[in-house]
Amino acid sequence: METGKLVKFEGMPVQGNFTQEQIMEVLQKLACNPGLLERMINCADRFSQMERATMGFEERCRSTINRCDSIEMLCRNFLCPGNVNFSQRTLDEYSGKNQVKLTEIVTGMGDPYVNAYPVPPGKKIRLTHKPRPGYTPTEIRIDLNIAGGGNNYSDFLIQFYLVPGGSNTGLGLEAGNAYDGNMFLNKDGTQLVVPFPEYRALPLDIGSLETLAVVVSNNGAANNLESAHINVFYDNARFFELCKARSGCGGSCSTTGTPPQ
What we know:
Jelly Rolls, 2 domains, five-stranded antiparallel β-sheet, four-stranded antiparallel β-sheet, 30% helix, 25% strand
């Protein structure tokens, strides 16, 4: 047999073209390692067992994923307050929205609060929104319409509140700092985007049994506040992710899609 010539083995478990040098190298290893050939044969015999074990493992993985998907549905439909307190029709209504307008005037709070616009100097107005599924605010945009075209925005103080239970009894819990109006508006009236305050370095989400309220105080000396437009923007998927984590599902369950929030 010539050196370097390819030799073809057929009719064996492994087929292929080998040079004489490669064959001699293999034979030398077998000769120098007693029992190596038997171990190789035993390994080859176990391939079918390993294949069956792998198929069984894959099946168990599929079963685990299906169970996780079932737990995901449980979290979505029974553990998340949005699904507990609101119908799917209501959730669908908010699924494509990302903005909450605080336009509902809270009345009957007594002096110095007013029950309607305008807000004279030294007075306040409290605004909120109707009950709705929970959301996680990300930024605030505000426009103040001051009588006489005034731009004394720094005379207005703005404080947000988290109101537990959806009740407007009492002020609620302060959410972030009190803002001067010029944090939201330049002198020329152009708006500034302000991030919504966090709580303990984490997003502050508004639960489905809670509402967000804001108090606008007119601390100026002359101009009435004719109207205020308080817009809070939110990520309509983040609330569900936080809710899911707090319900115990965390990130261990596979997600097949983003539910409406």
